[in-house]
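User:
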Amino acid sequence: MNDAVPLVYIVDDDTGMRTSLAWLLESVGIASKGFASAAEFLAAFDVTVPGCLVLDVRMPEASGFDVQEALNRRGATLPIIFVSGHGDIPMSVRALQQGAIDFVEKPYNSQQMLERVQRAMKLASQRHVKAMRQRELRERVNSLTAREKDVLRGLIEGKPSKVIASDLSISVKTVDVHRASIKDKLGASSMATLVRDVLEVWDPASE
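Assistant: Predicted structure:
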């Protein structure tokens, strides 16, 4: 799935806006999917598929900001381009502070919108690859035994094998065996990259 072409989600209660944008994207070979409401989109959204989102700010029932918050809670990585017929500075600032990459006022220039979507798609692919890698690494960390996680905590804290052995009341040789097993299970090329990668996905204090 890493090389999958991102899908553009269009979430807007204005049918004309959804249709015209879908046609515009289709004219340059970009696939899109339209949704008339926040609930409809959130029910269909798949976090494992790369994508970017063109999202209307004002919609009945749930606003674009509600959708953004729901996606942030799910840990979604898709870039968001907000569109609004009545955008103002505080609104655009709020959108960008919460992770949106762009804020566009309607009516928008077709060529500029295409360029923004293409930039968002490129970013979506990069984020997706990173998210998939982190998901896989998280699963690998979860596959470690309780003792291997104890040793990993020590490694993250920068402790040498001798100190870890003393802390856990085991031999240095046993620590080294666990170190080799951890490195193998996590597919790390070196201890430095292992520690850096693990810190992105695992909080040693959480277990």
